[in-house]
Amino acid sequence: MRLSSLLVLLPVALTASYVIPQDTPDGVYRTYLDESGNEVHERIGDGVPIGNAVALRDIVTPQFSNEKRQRIWDTACGCGIGLDHGSTDAAVQDLKNQIGPNNRNQNDINYYSIRGGVVAFSCLDDAWWTTTESGYLTNAYSTITARCGWYIAGTAELSPDGAAEPSVVGYMRYTNGLDFCRNAWASNRASC
């Protein structure tokens, strides 16, 4: 195969589709491609009880250095697509609990949490490795709330700084056969 053909195929390989299998129950999952290129969805937890999750309105955005404050968040909002408050809070809390404070994703793994009719997610965006940590998630979800509205479907990603490509973070309505990573940027609205 010629080099030019390989370069044309590279973006397709980097934007793998991750379709949630039919009737996937509530829980926390990671998804990746195995050695044969097959999509794997692995359940890794049950999550917190809905009443015990931290509400989005109670999240305090961590402070970052001036350098990080100057970087720009890209957002996409599902204006008019309201989400159940308890399910959204629980899905976000599950994801933050699973990812933890200092996770460097170098294994091409995406994470998602399904709670009721909501899926919260963290996807790699065409990067060989990325940084994902609970503080980044907190900032991303705070940005979604500020730009899209309370409990409105949305996606956020911090503009790349050249060192690592931040993950794409968001939440949306869960439906059977949802491709959450590809659908993350389906809206052309940056705010509502």
TrEMBL record:
<keyword id="KW-0732">Signal</keyword>
<feature type="signal peptide">
    <location>
        <begin position="1"/>
        <end position="21"/>
    </location>
</feature>
<protein>
    <submittedName>
        <fullName>Uncharacterized protein</fullName>
    </submittedName>
</protein>
